[in-house]
């Protein structure tokens, strides 16, 4: 009973990371099936570059969130800390934004390549 908060945070973080991973896999598979499969005649090298850019724009924030959510255990194997709360604002919020905006950009570039400009607006380049 003493570590109920840590257990709850660990479960919430695990659920959140699982949902993010599902979102990332769905976005990548959908993009490849539709853009590279159905519209293969217009799929050029720059689309592969865009896919790799979005792939790494998913992987890096996801790995950072996974490291932040990693729970710590005592030497006896008891849960001490459930990891950082991924629902907080700040860095966690920004990393979630990057993942969701990347998904939006990736999926909408199937329709028009002009959606790449959203990265410029969000990242303020």
From TrEMBL:
Keywords: Endoplasmic reticulum, Membrane, Transmembrane, Transmembrane helix
Subcellular location: Endoplasmic reticulum membrane
KW Metal-binding (keyword) present: no
Membrane topology, record value: Multi-pass membrane protein
Any one biological process term the GO annotation gives: vacuolar protein processing
Transmembrane parts of this sequence: 20-39
InterPro entries cross-referenced by the UniProt entry: SND2/TMEM208 (IPR008506)
Keyword check for Transmembrane helix: yes
Cellular component, GO annotation: endoplasmic reticulum membrane; vacuole
Pfam families, sorted: TMEM208_SND2 (PF05620)
Family in the record: Belongs to the TMEM208 family.
The protein's name: Transmembrane protein 208
Organism: Camellia sinensis (Tea plant)
